[in-house]
Specification:
Elements lengths: L3 E7 L25 E8 L5 H21 L5 E6 L26 H4 L5 E3 H5 L6 E3 L1 E6 L12 E5 L8 E2 L5 E2 L9 E3 L2 E7 L4 H9 L4 H5 L4 E6 L12 H8 L5 H14 L4 H4 L20 E8 L3 H5 L7 H15 L4 E5 L3 H15 L6 E2 L5 H21 L1 E5 L5 H13 L30
Parallel strand pairs: 2-3, 3-4, 5-10, 6-11, 6-12, 13-14, 13-16, 14-15
Antiparallel strand pairs: 1-2, 1-12, 7-11, 8-9
Amino acid sequence: MRYLLIFLVFQSCSSLSNSENEQCTKDSCSALTSSNYYLLYDVNHGEGFNLRRDVYVRMANLVHTLRERTSPESNWTLVLPPWGPLYHWFSYNLQRAQLPWSLFFDLKSLAKFVPVIEFEEFLRLSSPVLTIPYVFALQHFNEGWGEKFEEKLEIRQCNDEAMYEKRSDNYYHGWFFGYEDRVRAKQFDCLSAQGFVTVLVDYAMKNLTWSQEINDEHLLKSVMFDRAETLLHVDYGGYNYWRARRSMRYARRLINLGNRFRSEYLNSTDIHDRTYLVDDWTRAEYLSDQALGGPYLGIHLRRQDYVKARPEYVPSLEHAARQVCHQLLHLNLSIAFIATDANENEIDEVRQHAFKICHISTDQILTYRPDGKILEKILDGGKAIVDQWICAHARYFIGSYESTFSFRIQEDREILGFSKDSTFNRLCGDNEGLSCEKSTVWPIVY
């Protein structure tokens, strides 16, 4: 089950900066006012890295809408939820949590769409214990969508067991990114929700008030929406969807690692591949079909849980090798790069099948396997981004069926200016042969 937490937090801090290096502290912050607003969110532990990136786009657009609909004096900022631990992260950070976004993304670039701040930095603006006056757990209506689609919200009895418990201190306690001792809630209700994520805008503005009691306690004026991934993208594939997505530039050190691998092993550089991006995405121009890509085939081969969850769409290792051979011959390429969650034995099996089928050597099928020191620094999330960055620059890309990992690569390729034909492809299941229905095309909008 997917869970999403959103917190709308109201506090004033006149010296708040969106820089990665500058921050507002207790000493430099002004007293609480109603001029600055903070929106926080989180996703259930079971959700993966790339679905969480999709949720970020939803939340960034929610903040963008709030900034448009409220008065100019109301400054909304998005608080970034710490990363980890995640289901698909297996190495050094298996049990690690509270990882900042700056490990993986360029915060200055994010802030060019909506203002952002790390959660750890946000905690430093508050008292030792952050108290959220209201918590709402969003849930589906028991009776379903009904005969027609409509947006609606209604306080109801909880459909499932609540994730927050009321303790002897008269506050509700829960996970809160692993900061259980530093965050609590004053009130909790379940809110049945249906519609787009922006349905929360009017609800927050019309239905929430803060009593004098809360003001006297010097608590942060805030509201939290849990399980809000129930709500839909407000403009999926539209202009502001792509503005938020384009703002998600990766951390420079991860880009450098990917570029170094491309240069050393794949004869690929941005100049030769026609994949150069300007530093400021807001100044970028439409790059339709401009990119050529490096002289290699990029593949995302999803394994693990997908083998059982999508058996008709996930190829066997032999059939995956057969498709590698087919595409290399068709594209007149000699090297394939595979991003995968398969283990080394499975990758070796793909190489062996490819050698038998089309006589390509084992060193013509490459994967990115950083050494222990690098992996300890970039963690599994960083490795995933490097894998995606390399696939995004390939001459031709083939993804996995309905995989958010593949979706993010396809989005990167749209941003880089690759053709649709070289981007929206997928591996075929064993019963689909070598030609199957392509991935859904979501073209970039400028």
